[in-house]
Specification:
By secondary structure, this protein is an alpha+beta fold. It has 3 domains: 124 residues, Orthogonal Prism (Agglutinin, subunit A); 138 residues, no CATH class; 116 residues. Helix content is 17%, strand content 37%. The protein is built from 5 helices and 32 strands. The chain has a 6-stranded antiparallel β-sheet. The chain has a 4-stranded antiparallel β-sheet with strand order 1-10-11-12, with no helix packed on it. Strands 2-7-8-9 form a 4-stranded antiparallel β-sheet, with no helix packed on it. It is elongated and about 80 Å long. Keywords: Disulfide bond, Glycoprotein, Membrane, Signal, Transmembrane, Transmembrane helix. This is Bulb-type lectin domain-containing protein.
Length: 445
């Protein structure tokens, strides 16, 4: 009888320990009230893709709370909480309070960083999702629309699948990413990639308030300044891009089932990294594929000026410019549901309209983009779009008669390169990039 009772106790103890282990394993991705993450401890997403903890970048000794890929070497950080406020020693502690606010403390219990909250939760928990998104939510409520806070709303230098780049026009929430100052210093630099919603939304690289590079507007497949993006998408069926623009929000995001990130580096390179799981080859490794696009100072301000003035009363025509980067759309208007023929008529009916183009090139093209001012920042680009520039009827005949047999246009349209403004702008951008690359190179020695 005594042996039977002893066996029962051992069985009970075993079940208790097994259950405790299961509970501990199940909550490795979660922080609840009363729990914390200290320097040296980590959270790991349920699918083992991402890990949250403390780290020091490069040669720095400062400590940061960040998220990185769990199985990728070397350590690749995708988000940092306290990027502008490092902790000087390994004393950092992260916990969640009763109000659902994440709080990061240093050795003196001072708040180094905290999340925010617009409402309270009954049972607040913080969970590291398999997407790399750190979220604060109510217990078992997994509805993304009800998340109290999420790291995806506060990008660093990296855009992950599912993360938005754009703006909520109702709340004013902006999603943009900013490069690190250097490989050892993740604090915010002055260089930012963002979407400007004015007119027809466009993607810009800015240095503070100054526009350094215009990637252009979205045409259903790609930004008009980067048609190679379309080709990459065609070649890579696991990657898709999405763009939404309505009265509530404007945003761009990508989706992919594999590990992928887009980064603005300290040297102003726009890079896309993809990791392919090699377990199918019998090796538990990740293969890294890199696509890099250096932002070159090819930003040239180009204006079209006609040798004959437009005459709205006696009829104008349109000059077709093929394969170009569409001009600045900050003051343009879009009509989503009309054809290109209707777009032409609409432009002709407005004496202020200077050009038109298809707004969505998918499935043969649809929608209409209209310009009402100078056509700024146009350039020939492989895979570019067609732009129809308004010219006087008398001038159109001369232009057509001077076309080369090859189809290249010899037009009596003066392309004015604003030598002072654009020339200086290009030189300034080139100088900035050169100085940053030189500085980063010297720091790496």
């Amino acid at each position: 009888m005594r042996e039977s009772m002893e066996g029962f106790r051992l069985l009970t103890l075993y079940c208790f320990l097994f259950s405790s282990m299961r509970i501990a394993t199940a909550t490795l991705d979660t922080i609840t009230l009363g729990q914390s993450i200290r320097d040296g401890e980590t959270l790991v997403s349920a699918d083992q893709r991402f890990e949250l903890g403390f780290f020091s970048p490069g040669t720095s000794r400062s400590r940061y709370l960040g998220i990185w890929y769990k199985k990728v070497a070397p350590k690749t950080t995708v988000w940092i909480a306290n990027r502008d406020d490092p902790i000087s020693d390994p004393s950092g502690v992260l916990h969640i309070n009763a109000g659902g606010i994440l709080v990061l403390l240093n050795s003196t219990k001072d708040i180094v960083w905290s999340s925010n909250a617009s409402r309270s939760l009954e049972n607040p928990v913080a969970v590291l999702l398999g997407s790399g998104n750190l979220v604060v939510k109510d217990g078992n409520d997994n509805n993304p629309d009800k998340f109290l806070w999420q790291s995806f709303d506060h990008p660093g230098d990296t855009l992950l699948p599912g993360m938005k780049l754009g703006i909520n026009l109702v709340t004013g929430q902006e999603w943009f990413y900013t490069s690190w100052k250097s490989t050892d210093d993740p604090s915010r630099s002055n260089f930012t990639v963002l979407i400007d919603p004015r007119g027809y939304p466009q993607l810009f690289l800015k240095m503070g308030p100054v526009i350094l590079y215009r990637e252009g507007s979205w045409n259903g497949h790609h930004w008009t300044g980067s048609p190679q993006l379309c080709q990459q998408q065609k070649q890579n069926s696991i990657l898709s891009y999405n763009f939404l623009s309505n009265e509530k929000e404007v945003f761009f995001k990508c989706d992919s089932p594999v590990l992928l990130r887009m980064v603005l580096t300290p040297s102003l390179d726009m890079q896309r990294f993809t990791w392919m799981d090699q377990t199918v080859l019998g090796q538990n490794t990740m293969k890294e594929l890199v696509m890099s696009a250096t932002i070159m100072p090819s930003v040239v301000l180009m204006l079209f000026a006609m040798s004959a003035p437009l005459d709205c009363q006696h009829g104008d025509g349109f000059l077709k410019l093929e394969a170009v980067k569409l001009p600045d759309t900050s003051h343009s208007r879009a009509e989503k549901y009309i054809s290109l023929v209707e777009c032409k008529k609409l432009c002709l009916s407005n004496c202020s309209c200077t050009a038109y183009a298809t707004s969505d090139i998918r499935e043969g093209g649809s929608g209409c983009l209209l310009w009402f001012n100078d056509l700024i920042d146009i350039k020939d680009i492989e895979g570019g779009q067609d732009l129809y520039v308004r010219v006087a009827a008398s001038e159109l005949g001369n232009i057509e008669s001077r076309r080369k047999p090859s189809g290249k246009k010899q037009v009596n349209v003066i392309i004015i390169v604003a030598s002072i403004i654009s020339g200086m702008g290009a030189l300034v951008l080139a100088w900035i990039m050169y100085m940053r690359k030189t500085k980063l190179k010297n720091e790496g020695k």
